[in-house]
């Protein structure tokens, strides 16, 4: 997953993108007995080729046979997912438009921005979770600490001297490090980038010391030893990095942080459609083929009921919202 730079969006200009011609300008209302009768547009608020895009395309391909109609990916990147979220929040609730909504869309943006063109609680209906992107604390090869404990000790002895990269202010990676600093009582300097790629590039070059990295953005560099993995921010060790301890094992009790995502649709989308889409999602996400494909890009497939996803997203919004407000983090 490669969150874009968290910058002030020029929403009017960015969101003025024509809809896919094959979907037409109007859609018939969705009914349980005839839905779907046309292609379904899946808006992905990130560029093509990134981790989020891979998840959507993998799952779309898996659910298309069961639905009997093509699921078309529509990439609408920009402004910390706001461009895509705005387009879907104001789309017809006819069952033919869905959105990949993630940590930024539903949990962070409502606290990071003073004004949003969408309301995370009121403008969407939750369909189900899709995936989690495990975060790994990594260091550049020249950083003097070789373990998590050594990194914490070094940062405590050099307050403000150690710096850390993130794909942007308010990104899950940034928020994870803010939480880490709170729980370890260390002070480090944040260096925000416009996306994961340039942040990783400078980390590899030794321009920055540390970073919470999602494996979709850097699994190969970690496995090849080009970046030193100090701890995974998950409750258990990762299968792809079995020798890397959890952050909790490294001495930071209870520490856990993910970048996550799920599917939502415009509020008012018929319940029959939500139920059908959720069933297809759950079936696809439990297949070995989908799980293997996602694991290969550093992503964990996660399925849920609509209610479970709504509850999880709201709990995450409360959790990260408190941290954002306590730290005074803002992007506008």
Automatic annotation (TrEMBL):
This is Extra-cytoplasmic solute receptor. Belongs to the UPF0065 (bug) family. Residues 1-32 form the signal peptide. PANTHER family: BLR1237 PROTEIN, TRICARBOXYLATE-BINDING PROTEIN. It comes from Cupriavidus taiwanensis (strain DSM 17343 / BCRC 17206 / CCUG 44338 / CIP 107171 / LMG 19424 / R1). The keyword Signal applies. Keywords: Signal. InterPro entries: BUG, Bug_dom1.
